[in-house]
Write a structure and sequence with these properties.
It is built from three helices and no strands. By secondary structure, the protein is an all-alpha fold.
Length: about 200
């Protein structure tokens, strides 16, 4: 009877030891799972912060792109206005050159009959001088307009270069976020909650 009891006791204690070992293993697994959960929480927080920074960077880049686009549009408008002014000045110069040629012929004809039309020649010479002076003034204005047009052209080129850089940067940011449309960007926290 005592042998049976001793055997039962040994079996009982062995089962207790095995159960304790099993509980210890499970406790270690639980601790590992808790550590993994904490690591995942930290990673989620880090990704949410990175996502917020990327969204802010995206908004800033979009604002810069809009500002630069507005600058480019304004610059192109100025450039177009300067081109129109330059063309108007060119047309005026052509017209004045034609008038100069006409007056030169008048002067030549007047010189051939100098003894009869001395007064007419003097008047024509005075008008010719006035026209030449005005023509020189128009040429100076044309040169100034060309310089201004060149300035606005350089400004437009610089604005276009900046837009290209901003568009490349915007594309990179959208690529990191994973959605090419900034209106469809969803925060990482919302993605995790929906999952």
């Amino acid at each position: 009877m005592s042998e049976i009891n001793e055997a039962n006791m040994r079996e009982f204690f062995q089962s207790v030891v095995d159960h304790v070992a099993t509980l210890s293993t499970q406790a270690a697994k639980v601790e590992q799972l808790e550590q993994r959960v904490n690591e995942l929480h930290q990673r989620i927080s880090q990704l949410e912060n990175e996502n917020s920074e990327l969204r802010r960077d995206l908004q800033g880049t979009q604002t810069s792109l809009n500002d630069t686009t507005n600058t480019l549009n304004t610059t192109q408008a100025y450039l177009e206005a300067e081109r129109n002014t330059s063309q108007a000045l060119r047309d005026t110069i052509v017209s004045r050159d034609s008038r100069v040629s006409e007056l030169t012929h008048i002067v030549d004809d007047t010189n051939q009959s100098l003894h009869n039309v001395t007064h007419e020649r003097d008047v024509a010479n005075n008008e010719l001088n006035d026209v030449r002076a005005y023509n020189d003034s128009l040429k100076d204005q044309l040169n100034t307009a060309r310089e201004t047009a060149d300035h606005w052209q350089r400004t437009a080129n610089e604005a276009e270069r900046k837009i290209n850089e901003l568009e490349q940067r915007l594309a990179k940011i959208r690529g990191v976020i994973g959605d090419p449309d900034p209106q469809n960007v969803v925060s990482f926290s919302q993605t995790v909650q929906s999952a």
